[in-house]
Design brief:
The complex is a heterodimer of chains A (111) and B (114). Chain A is 0% helix and 55% strand. By secondary structure, chain A is mainly β. In chain A, the strands form two sheets. In chain A, strands 2, 4, 5, 9, 10 and 11 form a six-stranded mixed beta sheet that branches. The model of chain A has no long low-confidence stretch (mean pLDDT 93). In chain B, the strands form two sheets. In chain B, strands 2, 4, 5, 6, 9, 10 and 11 form a seven-stranded mixed beta sheet that branches. The model of chain B has no long low-confidence stretch (mean pLDDT 95). The chains are: A mainly beta (111), B mainly beta (114).
Chain lengths: 111, 114
């Protein structure tokens, strides 16, 4: 079942701008993972953040995690047209590799 | 990391028929799962594919509708039985890699039932 919600549902930005999306979840977690999905294809793993971590970076991606608020954010800096996709957060509550997904944020980057 | 291949990538199926989706991983993995993504929706876990034993299904999913096989540590199949238009979805295979706790997904199998 879905663990939480993502905000906003959709985001449209100009190339070069930053994109920020948020994810909230309901139960305690072991880790949280962010994925990208292009046009109904498979999911590409972007970044994993563990429950004892507060921030992680990977290239143009920055993820934060606030376990007290049960929320996470994904920031994409200097966006490109190729970043146009749907982005999903997913939580692993029991360290059993079973993921509960958020509803996703659809990002459109305009050239 | 893991490279996951799924077949078919797309198919159009007749109502009442069954279709088997294959998932092949390039390395041995213990944890393998099947998800469904209905049109415009997020992903929902169908079941855990257990090697050498029956799959473990999540609430709302049953073996008669979604039989799963896992003959070895690199391969699994999911069958969608007696399909109806409501089964039109993307079905995705995923594997868990213990070193790093990362979970990888295949490219998905996009089924349309007409």
């Amino acid at each position: 079942s879905q663990q939480g919600e993502e905000d906003p549902q959709a985001l449209s930005i100009q190339e070069g701008e930053n994109a920020t999306m948020n994810c909230s979840y309901k139960t305690s977690i072991n880790n949280l993972q962010w994925y990208r999905q292009n046009s109904g294809r498979g999911l590409v793993h972007l970044i994993l953040i563990r429950s004892n971590e507060r921030e992680k970076h990977s290239g143009r991606l920055r993820v934060t995690l606030d376990t007290s608020k049960k929320s996470s954010s994904l920031l994409i800096t200097a966006s490109r047209a190729a970043d146009t996709a749907s982005y999903f957060c997913a939580t692993d509550a029991r360290n059993d590799y079973k993921l509960s997904f958020g509803a996703g944020t659809t990002v459109t980057v305009r050239a | 990391s893991a490279v996951i291949s799924q077949k078919p990538s797309r198919d159009i199926c007749q109502r009442g028929t069954s279709l088997t989706i294959q998932c092949q991983v390039d390395s041995q993995v213990t944890m393998m799962f099947w998800y469904r993504q209905q049109p415009g929706q997020s992903l929902t876990l169908i079941a855990t594919a257990n090697q050498g034993s029956e799959a473990t299904y999540e609430s709302g999913f049953v073996i008669d509708k979604f039989p799963i096989s896992r003959p070895n540590l690199t391969f699994s199949t999911l069958t969608v039985s007696n399909m109806s238009p409501e089964d039109s979805s993307i079905y995705l295979c995923s594997v868990g890699i213990p070193s790093g706790n990362t979970i990888y997904f295949g490219e998905g199998s996009w089924l349309t039932v007409v």
